[in-house]
Write a structure and sequence with these properties.
Order of helices and strands: HHHHHHHHHHHEHEHEHHHHHEHEEHE
Strand content: 5-15%
Oligomer: single chain
Shape: globular
Number of helices: 20
Helix content: 40-55%
Radius of gyration: 22 Å
Number of strands: 7
Distance between the termini: 45 Å
Amino acid sequence: MEIIEKARELEDRGEFHEAIDLLEDYIEKNKSEKIGAHRLLSRLYLKTGDKSKAIAVLEDAIKSNPQNLWYYLMLGDLFYFYLNDTERAIPVYEKGLSFFVKPEKSTMSPYRYFLKRLSNIYYDMDDKEKALKRYEAFFILEPSDFYASDFIKFADLLISFGFDDRAKDVLHIGVKTHPGELKLYNFAKEKFPNEVFPFKEKRRRGSIEGVEKILIKTPILKEGDDIYKTIDDFTKDIRKDGDIITISSCVAAICEGRFVTVDTITPSALAKFVSQFVSHKNLPFGGAAPLANPYAMEIAIREAGALKIAFAALIGGIGKLLGKSGWFYRVAGPQSAMIDDPPGSIPPYDYSIVLGPKDSFEIARKIQKISGLQAAVIDANDSGIAWAVGYTEGVDKEKLETALSDNPAGNEDNQTPIVIVRGLA
């Protein structure tokens, strides 16, 4: 990982060509490298405007590491998410998918990620037969990254082929596993007005009289993007004096490059052992706690240190015996609590372990500097919990967390990482 860190330090200083030379030399000596050098080198070439070399690096990675199907995913993502070249992305994704002779449910397999991309691509292309085929294979996995929008698209396809009963079953599952998703519920009721769907409103704890939450839609933000310019550009015509500008901690971390793709991680014995004691509750179309994944736990160990994590596990175990929760994270530290495991993030970062931002308070201060308003970095989920992990002076942390506890930004493909909170003061 030292090579990656050095290359990123050079990148942060704008020394792109020096970073490229460093990575090229490393890869030449380590063709079967497993630290993510190929992916970073490809992105650096893209950043310098050399698209052909960006592509060639990942094509060479596939040739040098034919058993590593993650490289097919990376190359497909390069075409699809970075170069907007769907036509070239499809055969790469399909080729990667062709290596699987049977379904694989594991989030540590690229199988579901190929299906995630292809099902949506074919749907957007209106290639209904291919879209339905890929959605069927994806749905069978009962994956946590089968978003509310995926339920709508899958049901829509089923209805278009006359499979109404199957569509009803799918929508019942969707409404049940995505409680409070009004768009999904409305779609279900529109298509089947006489059917009773068990709609459950989202937690209303976030409802505070007089407080308005304005969702700001953005493109998918990627590593290296200037988050401050993005916030300024997308809020300058909307924000007002007294507003609080908030940004998703996950998105802020991705822009900082604070993520590690799973193909580059080898969990240690400690990570495998400690992760067994984290809640493994994993319901259909839902996910377990991130640190139940040994890959995520390995990143927590890298961040906090092996001794601290081992001690945190001991204290956490004692807490469980006493009926207390959260002791592990109190000892391990806030960075451990912010870690997300696959497929918790939006593609193309859904096969990465995403950490928390380096300094959330500094991010909030910089947002305040460019906007003139109070700001906060928020880690929220659909369980009714919001955490202001960094904020500017004067922000009422507790009130802000209450206001955002209904997670208005969402954790799926909403693409609304910025939320303006108005009227809280």
